[in-house]
Design goal:
Oligomer: single chain
Radius of gyration: 45 Å
Shape: globular
Helix content: 10-25%
Number of helices: 22
Length: 1820
């Protein structure tokens, strides 16, 4: 198809006032013939082997001097152009300037003749097959009673939080005809309402919605469908003027509900805002009307919506919708060809209610001989013989059609359109914005009687099937213009990752960046990026969660312009591997069952439980468990089982968990003691003796025949039958909360004296923590509470549990009431049996031997005879039961203790410090502390202990402020500790609880926790039972001699203990019952005897003694003690450093809120959960076996005479990292970032190499202009570290003697101090510090307070966005003048050592001889070479900034910082733009020199994509691949780092990758993380063996690949660019969508290949330049010699000042402006702001008139002479700017897309002559 060149006078900017014209094809002009399939310049370009220019090869250029024009393919000489139909010379693409109007007409005639020839050929084909395949028109039923309809398309142009309810109605002569209700979407999604079945006539359309003015419009309906598109609010891309096509508008702002928007509504809105109303009701009482944007708040945004509506009313805008028309759905009949098989309803084709599938009957292929056909005949035409229906355009929505014809029977004859390659030829086009649609534009209204759709070939892969979903016949197209190019990102595809996702989208031309919005659980956040991809790992400062839904959308931005968001898409991060093994598995046995519970793990869909009898055979599996618990049933009685759990997801099954053990219970009831039993048992089910009655206050009896039919009877609790029981579904039944109506009341046959009571459950369900006893007698008819000394959990010989209530004093009573309390809020109290015992004074008599609460001395009267008599009683059995005293074991210990005291005084008491308490630490603002004090005892699960407590003032039996804490040695983090009891003064009997069910020893060290806050408390504690644990307690020890003695004594004890540990295990643990939690084979890593505690002032180690001893080496005991002392001093020193940086001190001058913690940190030997090497738990830091030794390997830091680091080391990154977690200031802490500040403090040595991050990465972040945190945690740390560098003037390990010095000299000491007490923060402007907002806002405010400077520039550089409160607080300080964001460690050292006198602040040190250059081979690589007179010792580096221009004004953007004299800028976010570079030196004090502009370049590159987010993989192995070793500072297993990443590092000179694939052809895979438009590959190799023959494949999913190139690289060239071709290998460039590109080197197996750099190319965007010839500006400006007529009606007068040049873009949406040196528009503006200049854009226009297909042309900008023939006098430089707009009629949505470098005007302007084809002849 030929294209005819026409002129488009593009509209100027919205304010310019330049008129817009488009000239018809027949106007005066020149002709340019092109092949029909030629499109954009990329499509026309030939693929070349090497491309070193900025334009794509083969791009056509119109020269100023040339007399003829050639097709670009003819120019290259690679292909002759001819047309098969035969063309005249004038059609060949060559035309002279003297071509006449007659020649133009001849061209048109020739084209018509050619078209007729084509139609005749088609008719011949039709006739040949008509009889066999044709349509039987007589059988098509054509409706005669077609009705009309009104179609309303509803859209939303207003950002709204939620949608609005709309009522839509049609009336005729005030009578309601139709009514519908619909919800208007809050987003861009449109909704359509069809009001059909209408008779011909005029109707009134009414649209009503709360908060909007009523919309009314008169619509005339015939037998057609009239379509009105209506928006809530106003679209920015259209003008609401009469005569201009635009949608209807619903005006927002009707607050009072009167159907109109007026001033009354504004008054109500303002009053509602003043009253701080929510959307519940505005001030007028109209619920919700004032909340115009539906966000639940009446605020300024609602007022803005109202104001826009009022402005439009004031402008008298046209609010009615421009109507389009289509033929009614029921106005035609449809039939199929005789040989056409139809699936679906033919009549649905006109209504879009379904789709039909067409094929050839008998399964033959669709072809010319066997086509498929559909016929459509219109009503009123008598099957096509009448006048027909008026139609302008036909749209056929289809899939699978490749070849065929569309035949229209019209009033003037037959029209045939050919379908070729899925497109309609001869005035056809692809339907804009629609998929798979064929459009026939008839060029005006044509009376169509019937239509035949004839398909002769289907698309490949369609299985010879064709689908048609709808056929539309449209009118009213005269106002249509091309759809606006909004540059809304397309192919927006999120890629899920493990706890992250990558967002990628097509790169949009002519934009400067993108804005991504993410929504999760009702919350949203926005992130900006300069590139078309982003990786998201966190939302709201928290890591993403696999399996949860996140919604994302994106929009393009260019300055203040925004494209509007894409549609929302959902993405679910997913696990990248099998689940981790479940943690915290705990098993509990029951009757023939075991209940297993475990942690609900991330990334796990289901679980499997495996179990077996311990040590017996294979495990049995239970799978597909959906919850994190399971009950295994059908097991044996009294059998021990091993259990483990695995997790399962779609990628497989996890490793096994740790093995747990549990023992099932027996059917045999628990055997409670019978020693001196009162209620002796008879037969099961019979009431036990001496019980008269048992009653309950509430609850119920279960399976108790004795209580059937009896109110409140509970005899089943004393019937010797564990199958009957009392049940109350609550956690307390009178145990803590007493009452007559609670618990169980027992009445005996007579009074009895008793002090023991036992009770048991039917089976073990949970634990009881408390019980109450009330006794009744004549003196206490209402009951009196007995003092309960202890509620002990006991086990019988079979392991069954029961409970013993021990009274402090015996009671004599006939009636008792018992109350019970469960622990752990377990709401199920079950009591099966209760036993009572005669009082026996034996226990009281034995305890009466002692004179003190600690049982450390006997009464004076005690003799050996007394002890022997008590021993005899203890050894005597009960006459009835034959049992010994139930507490015989414990009482024997007391007797043994007393016997020993007869000859000596018993020691081993521990004094509890009242200074270690959480009650003193509420001021700190962080948790993670621990107040436990070690007792020096380990005890195992079930072991019975006696804890003796003494106090300086409290009496025996009084409550204390002490808790007994039992711990599990080598525990999981969820089962570390339990509070055993709140102790009383005197004797406390306890049973050590079980904390887990793992197959290891159960038990651990015991601790006391003091909960009081009284420094005068004096507690002493002694433990009877357990095993001795080595403890080193240095808390409060200040004297070196005492310290040394304690450490030496500890080492001696530890050596002996470790040596004897195995023997002790055999004696103490293997002697316990076989199935207990302690009797196991000796394992040094799990034996609880291995525990040791070392307590310092600020930290406590609870670890393995063996590992501590091993770390101390093989020296003497004294040498070991010295080494331990050194390491402990290093820990003290480290904690002192940390707490000084937190502003904490214990000097007398320290304010209360800045006092050191009274508690300590606790580092414990723990089991690691999956993925952890160390961890910070709630009140401890967990480390594993191999890490314990490092605690004994520290060395104190020694400083030199200047205070600088000399030698020594702390404990590695990891320990400090975990400590940081626990002491992070809560106000601004961010996990894994701020805690690393403490790690950095321990490892930095005042050098750049000693920090965790690379300063080059820091500089890239702070010059990137990106919002949000860096993805790198190391780089994020640098933000906090630089503040330390900027304001702390001591060397890194400096600490201070006083609180005042500490506060003055340490930045974070002030930060944390103000976080604890905001009242102390400075407020020089009266704005007080408040800590509101998120952690970032709080940090920014605290930092400004600590620096007493406005640090907003610093934080903005780091991507933080201060809110209004933060800006207000910062604004009262002077701005920080230094570039703190560039400071590094060595710069600070230089200032410390030299002062700041040598600063070059404000001086000219950057030389004017500095220069910029563009790499010819890499056209987007700019090298800045810097010459400087700055002292190298003082120089820190250079800040690089780009200056670009828009609207004649320059804009500065920092793009880099370098410490070298040369820097390279890889420009990927701009193209076809002029850039001026500026260099500013920065000294080591952070001060800027005077800036120096060093040169201007114009970037016009090949469309190379940005590689920042790419990943690269290869099957090659290189000698440069790295496999780092793991160490304490890098605890996670390091991954292999392939050197192939260097091929995308932007280094085109060095870093050449060399690798070999041994068994297969070498390949390199580039993964973009997004879908890009790709059109070529650039290969750079500067050394080594170049790739020869190769193929390139692309993919969008990484699975399905398409080969787009097969060629051979030239080994003699360093840089080669090769463009992709289509499958036909046509000579133009093909562009593909790809998320992956794979380069394969053919025949390369076993050969080493080299790659320096790889680039992938895409489209290159709009462009403008002066002059119509490349590199020649002679024709760019001049005085027009003679009048130039450009459209037959308009012309440029002779004498005009004319600017000319070339452009590339879309002329329908491009606007050119020319500016002078001062940024003023050439020509100036009038008083109304209109530009006193005009412009036209000359474009090659396709025959269909749609300018979107044009890509290249000439622009002319001129100023006409005034009435005196004068033009403005110009001198100096001029620049041209090319803008793109969203709306070709209004120029709304303008943004700059290209500009030129400055052009110096000649002193005297020469004449210029423009020929008819837009060419110029420049004169002197």
């Amino acid at each position: 198809m030929k294209k005819v060149t026409a002129w488009l006078l593009a509209a100027a900017l919205a304010f310019s006032g330049i008129p817009a014209y488009a000239s018809p094809a027949e106007g005066k002009g020149f002709l340019l013939t092109e092949e029909d399939n030629a499109g954009t310049q990329e499509e026309n370009a030939l693929g070349s082997r090497e491309q070193e220019q900025s334009e794509v090869p083969g791009t056509e250029e119109i020269t100023a001097e040339a007399e003829t024009e050639s097709h670009p393919e003819t120019e290259t000489g690679t292909e002759d152009v001819s047309e098969t139909e035969g063309i005249s010379e004038s059609e060949s693409g060559v035309e002279t300037e003297t071509e006449t109007q007659t020649e133009t007409e001849t061209e048109a005639e020739t084209e018509t003749e050619t078209e007729i020839e084509t139609e005749t050929e088609t008719e011949t084909i039709q006739k040949e097959n008509a009889s066999e395949n044709g349509i039987d028109w007589d059988k098509i039923e054509v409706p005669e009673d077609a009705k009309g309809a009104v179609e309303v398309i509803l859209g939303n142009a207003l950002p709204m939080k939620r949608g609005a309810d709309l009522n839509i109605s049609l009336t005729r002569n005030s009578e309601l005809i139709k009514k519908e209700s619909v919800e208007l979407a809050a987003g861009p999604k449109k909704k359509t309402v069809l009001l059909d079945g209408l008779d011909a006539g005029t109707y009134t359309l009414l649209v009503e919605a709360e908060g909007f003015a009523d919309f009314k419009q008169e619509i005339e309906v015939q037998r057609n469908v009239r379509t009105a598109e209506i928006y809530a609010g106003f679209r920015d891309d259209v003008a609401y003027e009469a005569g201009n096509a635009h949608p209807g508008a619903l005006l927002a702002g009707d607050v009072d509900g009167d159907g109109a928007v007026n001033e009354t509504d504004g008054d109500i809105l303002i009053d509602s805002m003043s009253a701080h109303r929510t959307a519940v009701a505005d001030i007028s009482g109209n619920t919700g009307r004032a909340d115009l944007n539906k966000d639940g708040i009446i605020d300024l945004l609602d007022l803005q919506y109202y104001a826009v509506s009022m402005d439009k009313l004031g402008e008298k805008a046209d609010f009615e919708a421009s109507l389009t028309t289509r033929v009614a759905d029921d106005a035609a009949g449809v039939g199929a060809g005789k040989n056409t098989q139809v699936e679906g309803r033919l009549e649905d084709l006109l209504s879009s209610e379904g789709k039909i599938t067409l094929s050839v009957k008998d399964g033959e292929a669709i072809s010319e001989e066997t086509p498929v056909e559909i016929g459509i005949a219109f009503a009123g035409t008598e099957t096509g013989s009448g006048e027909g229906v008026q139609v302008e355009e036909i749209v056929i929505r289809s899939e699978g059609i490749r070849e065929g014809n569309i035949i229209l029977d019209t009033e003037d004859g037959e029209i045939v359109r050919t379908i070729r390659d899925g497109r309609v030829e001869a005035a056809g086009r692809s339907y804009a914005g629609k998929e798979d649609a064929l459009v026939i534009d008839l060029g005006g209204q044509v009376a169509v009687k019937r239509v035949t759709i004839r398909v002769t070939a289907a698309q490949k892969g369609s299985n010879n099937l064709v689908e048609i979903s709808k056929v539309e016949f449209l009118n009213g197209m005269e106002n249509r213009i091309p759809d606006p190019e909004m540059n809304i990102p397309e192919n927006f595809r999120p890629e899920p990752e493990n706890k992250a996702f990558t967002l990628g989208w097509d790169k949009e031309p002519n934009v400067t960046g993108y804005e991504v919005e993410i929504e999760h659980k009702g919350e949203t956040q926005q992130v900006r990026t300069a590139v078309n991809s982003i990786r998201v790992q966190a939302f709201g400062k928290k890591k993403l969660v696999n399996g949860e839904v996140y919604k994302v959308r994106v929009q393009s931005v260019n300055g203040a312009w925004k494209s509007g968001f894409s549609e929302w898409l959902s993405i679910v991060p997913k696990a990248e591997g099998r689940p981790e093994a479940p943690d915290y598995v705990k098993a509990e046995g029951g009757y023939r069952r075991i209940t297993v519970k475990w942690k609900d793990m991330d990334d796990t869909d289901s679980y499997c439980v495996y179990y077996r009898e311990k040590g017996q055979g294979a495990y049995q599996k239970v799978g597909s468990i959906e919850t994190n618990s399971y009950e295994i049933t059908g097991l044996k009685d009294r059998t021990r089982y091993e259990i483990y759990v695995t997790g399962v997801n779609e990628l497989g099954e996890s490793d096994p968990s740790l093995i747990s053990e549990a023992e099932t219970e027996a059917v045999t009831p628990v055997q409670m003691p019978k020693y001196k039993l009162i209620n002796e048992a008879g037969n099961a089910g019979s009431l036990t003796s001496h019980i008269a009655s048992v009653t309950r206050g509430r609850g119920r009896m279960v399976n108790s025949p004795l209580d059937e039919g009896k109110t409140n009877s509970a005899l089943g609790a004393a019937d010797n039958d564990f199958g009957s029981y009392y049940q109350m579904e609550d956690w307390d039944d009178g145990g803590l909360y007493h009452g007559e109506g609670k618990g169980l009341t027992f009445t005996f046959d007579q009074p009895y004296e008793m002090n023991y009571i036992t009770f048991a459950e039917a089976e073990e369900l949970g634990n009881y923590s408390n019980a109450s006893v009330f006794w009744y007698d004549g003196a206490n008819p209402n009951g009196k509470q007995a003092a309960v000394k202890a509620v002990l959990k006991k086990r019988d010989e079979n392991g069954r549990s029961y409970y013993m209530i021990k009274l402090a004093e015996p009671v004599t009573a006939q009636k008792l009431r018992l109350g019970f309390t469960r622990s752990g809020n377990y709401r199920n109290i079950v009591i099966a049996e209760v036993n009572f015992y005669h009082y026996d004074s034996l226990e009281d008599d034995i305890l009466a031997l002692y004179a003190d609460d600690l049982h450390t001395c006997l009464k004076d009267s005690v003799t050996q005879k007394d002890i022997d008599a008590l021993q005899k009683r203890l050894d005597t059995q009960d006459e009835k039961s034959g049992e010994y005293h139930p507490e015989k074991e414990m009482l024997q210990k007391e007797l043994d203790n007393a016997r020993g005291l007869l000859d000596s005084t018993l020691g081993e008491t521990l004094e509890i410090s009242p200074l270690i308490t959480a009650a003193k630490d509420g001021h700190l603002g962080f948790g993670g502390l621990n107040g436990w004090q070690p007792l020096g005892v380990t005890a195992y699960e079930g072991e019975q202990l006696v804890i003796y407590v003494g106090h300086n003032t409290l009496k025996t039996g009084a409550d204390t402020s002490l808790k007994l804490i039992a711990t599990q040695y080598h525990a999981e983090s969820n089962s570390l500790a339990a509070e055993v009891a709140r102790l009383k003064v005197g004797r406390n009997e306890v049973t050590v609880p079980g904390l887990n069910s793992l197959a290891q020893e159960h038990g651990g060290a015991l601790y006391i926790q003091y909960t009081g806050n009284n420094a005068n408390d004096r507690y002493a504690v002694r433990v009877s039972g357990g095993a001795k644990e080595p403890v080193l307690n240095l808390y409060g020890v200040t004297k070196d001699e005492e310290r040394h003695e304690k450490i030496l004594s500890y080492i001696e004890e530890l050596e002996e203990h470790v040596q004897n540990q195995k023997n002790l295990h055999e004696q103490l643990h293997e002697a316990v019952a076989e199935n207990s939690g302690i009797n196991r084979e000796y394992d040094p890593k799990n034996c609880i005897l291995g525990a040791t505690d070392i307590m310092l002032d600020q930290i406590m180690y609870s670890v393995s003694g063996e590992q501590i001893l091993k770390a101390l080496g093989s020296g003497t005991t004294k040498e070991k003690a010295e080494k331990l002392d050194s390491s402990l001093r290093a820990m003290d020193q480290m904690m002192h450093l940390f707490y000084q940086h937190k502003g904490l001190n214990d000097s007398s001058q320290t304010p209360a809120k800045d006092r050191l913690p009274s508690q300590h940190l606790n580092i414990r030997y723990m089991r690691m959960f999956k993925g952890a090497f160390m961890y910070a738990g709630g009140n401890h830091i967990g480390i594993e076996w191999d890490s314990v030794k490092h605690l004994a390997e520290g060395r104190p830091i020694r400083l030199d005479e200047n205070g600088k680091y000399a030698d020594g080391n702390f404990f590695g990154w990891g320990i400090a990292h975990e400590i940081g977690h626990n002491i992070n200031q809560n106000a601004y802490s961010i996990a894994e970032i701020t805690n690393n500040y403490f790690s950095q403090l321990t490892t930095a040595r005042d050098t750049n190499e000693s920090v965790r991050f690379r300063y080059q990465d820091v500089y890239e972040k702070v010059t990137s202009g990106t919002i949000g945190r860096s993805e790198s945690e190391a780089v994020q740390l640098a933000l906090y570290w630089q503040l330390h560098l900027a304001y702390d003037r001591g060397y890194n390990f400096a600490t201070y003697d006083s609180y005042e010095e500490q506060f003055k000299n340490l930045f974070y000491a002030r930060v944390d101090t103000y976080a604890r007490d905001v009242s102390r923060a400075p407020a020089p402007g009266g704005v007080k510090l408040t800590l509101e907002g998120d952690a970032e806002q709080k940090l920014m405010r605290l930092a400004c307070a600590a620096a007493e400077a406005d640090l907003m520039e610093f934080f903005t550089r780091w991507g933080m966005m201060p809110d209004a409160g933060t800006r207000a607080y910062a604004a009262q300080f002077e701005k920080e003048p230094r570039a703190v964001y560039y400071l590094n460690d060595e710069a600070r050292v230089y200032e410390i050592e030299h002062g700041t006198d040598a600063t070059f602040a404000g001086k000219n040190v950057v030389g004017a001889s500095s220069r910029v250059s563009v790499n010819e081979a890499v056209p987007n690589e700019v090298t800045i070479s810097i010459k400087s007179s700055a002292d190298p010792e003082v120089l820190l580096g250079y800040e690089i900034a780009r200056y670009t221009y828009e609207g004649g004004r320059e804009s500065r953007k920092v793009v880099g910082f370098t410490t070298e004299s040369q820097w390279q800028d890889h420009v990927t976010d701009l193209n076809n733009r002029a850039i001026t570079y500026e260099v500013t030196a920065v000294d080591k004090f952070g001060y800027y020199s005077a800036p120096q502009k060093v040169g201007t370049v114009r970037i016009s590159h090949d469309g190379s994509h940005d590689k920042a987010m790419w990943k690269v993989m290869t099957n090659m192995v290189s000698k440069a691949d790295e496999i780092p070793e793991a160490d304490e500072n890098m605890p996670c297993e390091p991954q292999k780092k392939s050197a192939v990443s260097s091929v995308i590092d932007y280094d085109y000179q060095k870093n050449t990758y060399a690798g070999t694939s041994s068994n297969a052809d070498a390949s390199v895979l580039l993964q973009f993380g997004e879908v890009l438009a790709v059109s070529g590959i650039k290969y750079t190799v500067t050394s080594g063996n170049a790739i020869g023959a190769f193929t390139v494949e692309i993919s969008t999913d990484g699975k399905n690949w398409t080969k787009v190139l097969e060629d051979t690289f030239d080994p003699g060239k360093k840089i080669q660019t090769i463009y992709f071709r289509n499958e036909k290998n046509d000579p133009w460039v093909a562009t593909y969508d790809a998320a992956y590109v794979r380069l394969k080197a053919k025949g390369s197996a076993g050969k080493e290949l080299s790659i320096t750099e790889l680039d992938i190319l895409g489209p290159s965007g709009d462009s403008i330049r002066f002059g119509v010839e490349e590199g020649n500006r002679n024709s760019a400006v001049g005085i027009l010699a003679k009048e130039y007529e450009y459209d037959g009606q308009h012309s440029i007068p002779a004498g005009s000042l004319v600017f000319m040049g070339r452009y590339k873009g879309n002329p329908a949406y491009n606007v050119v402006l020319v500016y002078d040196d001062e940024g003023n528009i050439i020509g100036g503006t009038d008083e109304d702001g209109a530009v006193n200049a005009a412009q036209i854009i000359l474009a090659d226009v396709p025959e269909n008139g749609l300018l979107g297909e044009v890509s290249d042309g000439i622009w002319i900008y001129w100023i006409e002479p005034d009435k005196n023939g004068e033009i403005p006098k110009l001198s100096g430089n001029v620049r041209a700017e090319l803008y793109r707009v969203d709306d070709a009629m209004t120029n709304e949505g303008q943004r700059l897309v290209s500009d030129t470098v400055k052009m110096l005007l000649p002193e005297k302007l020469g004449e210029i002559e423009i020929s008819g084809n837009g060419k110029s002849n420049a004169g002197e």
